[in-house]
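Cross-check.
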Amino acid sequence: MNITKRKPHTPGEILLEEFMRPHGLTQTQLAEHIGVTRRRINEIIKGKRALSPDTAIRLGKLFKMSPEYWLNLQMKIDLWNELYGQKRSFKIKPLKLVTQK
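Predicted model, tokenized:
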């Protein structure tokens, strides 16, 4: 996976722009279609809630695609947040590899 310093789009941004708007779905309609609360959808779209495996499966079934698509989006944003978002440094020295003779 190629992680750049440019922040990736959140699953919620992709959900809204690439799926909900083209299909004319409101948050309430999407929530009803996949059997979750509107609040869950709203929090995902606003980036206040991570997209869970449960939600990934539901969205995958609704849009006829793999749940891994949604989970990969979440993984990218989670990893980016850890690497660049919190500005913390890891004080870890890499292991020296033992060479075999």
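The radius of gyration is 18 Å. The chain has one domain: 11-85. Passed to J.P. for a second look.
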